[in-house]
Amino acid sequence: MRIPLGTLRILVLLAVFVGTVLFFASQIDGYLNARLFNRISGSVAVIALIAVGQAFVVLTRNIDLSIGSVVGCSAYFTGGILIAYPDLPPILVPLLAMGIGAVFGAFNGFLVARFRLPSIIVTLATLALFRSILVQSSDGSSITTNRLPTWLTEFATLNAFTAGELQFRWIVVISLIVVLTAHVFLTRFRAGRQFFAIGSNPDAAAFAGINAGRTIFLAFVISGALAGLAGFMFLSRFGNITVVAGLGLELKSVGAVVVGGVNIFGGSGNVLGVLIGAALIDLIDTSLVRWELVSAFWREAVLGLLILLAVAADTVLMRRLLRRKPTGGSQ
Amino acid sequence: MKHLTVSTLALCAAMFGVQANAQAVTAEKGGNANMVLLPKFLGILPFDQANRGAEEAHAELGNTGTLLYTGPTPENSVAGQIEILTTAGSQGQAVVMLSNNAGDQIAPAAEAAQAAGTKVVTWDSPIPSGAGETVFVAQVDFGSIGVVMADMAHSIMGGEGEFAVLSATPDAANQNAWIAAMEEALKGEKYASMKLVDTVYGDDQSEVSYNRALALVDSHPNLKLIMSPTTVGIQASAKAMQDEGLCDKVKVSGLGLPAEMVSYTMNGCAPGFALWSFVDLGYLTYYTSYMLATGKITGEVGETFNAGRMGDYTIEQDPGRENGKRILMGPFTVYTSANVEAEAN
């Protein structure tokens, strides 16, 4: 029986995820219930989008640290436009948010791809730059729920369908569709495979006629657009948007990508893994609040430690499993 | 006997001191002093309101110097504040009005600014050790806000049941002082049937606070109230309770901005909350700074001055900080469905 390496990795991640759930269930009274699913799925919907965008960038041996600022800007500007034009057709609004995010992403992509600047420097600078644009243009006023159209603030809790007490909200369904689309695109399409090619061997990719600059630019635009869509969900879910919106999301997204098994040096990974990675990080974050053993001062440290453990467990398990297989496939 | 004499003398001196200063010093308009208003970070409403108050006082006093409203961006708050304070000192600004977000880390920069002749007046959030600080303009007595929070909880919960606190960050000095003051107040007999079951932290971010509020409800099935002494936390909690249809069961209270809370107060999710005026806080802070810059007061305990439309204020020893001096603004307003709409617009 041969299981492809990619599938194996997903299975291992799932095992770690289930193990984490069982661990917290043994520690916290009344932990396993439908509400846990409803809580975590809603919040993962937002993080997963950002993490998938980040995965595109990381696959090409780059990183996007500005992603939290892009989420904040998209949420804020989309909210601002909606307050000025409350009659915009609802279907246009997420597209608008994606457009705003894509513009920020294109700016990153242009600097990285055109001038071959290191992405860690470029996006570290734009992390501050985009946030400053937001601060300057907001002029100290927040977007508040009561000024937004009702359909928008209600959208975040709208169920696509329910199964017993399990609620599958539209934002969760949309997020899953995006993840699956990204997965199919990356694995089944030539244009998708190019992201892996650039990351695993840039020289070979160049010989094969792949335009590295264009692919990297595209990765940043996708990352920006998905951050924009996340910004839309953010706006819908939290209603009140201040200039600190989305602060620190770069850490969560990189965490989800790495835990999800994407090679931080580019070239390999799977967005289904990233989805599980995002869910795992959010699960740990949410559950730690309810775990009385850990005080608030240590929560961040424990979260960091558990992420390290998850990555280590994943690596060790993978190595063991690979050693047993006479011919390890590669991806 | 000698001891008695000394203390009698001290008492006389103290009384004499009070007598001498009972006549409040008034400002001389048209002075020249360059002022810097430095919030925790730029871009959120309360600080902009404080700036509005400072601008009002600036115009009223006819200061021929400049009033500069500047601050760091949110992700760079601590380092940015220290940098701006350091720069202000070397530029020879007369006064920096600081809402400190850097704890005692900023003390060396504040001391350097003082040495260069720049006064440092804190407002909203002081320098904990008091080092490098001329005086702190306190929005409210940190002890009395604890009583107000306990009373709001008492009235919303009908005097009994479980409630929890959703704060900003675990190391926010003013938040911790207020929560401690509330716990102290809760020891009173009136609150004997109320139980504070948990304290969690939302980092003053909507998304974190929202998720924390839901986690509180999940952990404590009998929870009747979430008390959030931060403007971000209170509105995120109210939104979370509304979204999940929990408003009948779990109410929200704390410190909030009327403009952000009005819908939740009107629909019953957050029946009551409190806040002071940030415009007034900015106005009083500016007046204090102007009096210091023009040499009308020197920042000693017992000095009394007139702060325009807000009346007379006296510098006193800060009861919460051994080496700190404060000017207590007070009072604050409790908002309910009766008065929130008028204030929100």
Shape label of chain A: globular
Main sheet of chain B, how many strands, which sense, barrel?
Answer: 7 strands, mixed
**SS element count, helices of chain B:** 11
**Which CATH class of the largest domain in chain B?**
Alpha Beta
Oligomeric state of shown chains: heterodimer
Number of domains of chain B: 2
Adjacency order of strands in the biggest sheet of chain B = 2-1-3-4-5-14-13
Helix count from the secondary structure assignment of chain A? 13
Give, in order, the helices and strands of chain A: HHHHHHEEHHHHHHH
Share of helix of chain B, binned: 40-55%
Global outline of chain B: elongated
Total discrete domains of chain A? 1
Give the fraction of residues assigned to helices of chain A. over 70%
The total count of strands of chain B amounts to: 15
> In terms of per-residue confidence, which ranges of chain B show pLDDT below 50 for 5 or more consecutive residues?
1-21
Please state the structural category of chain B: alpha/beta
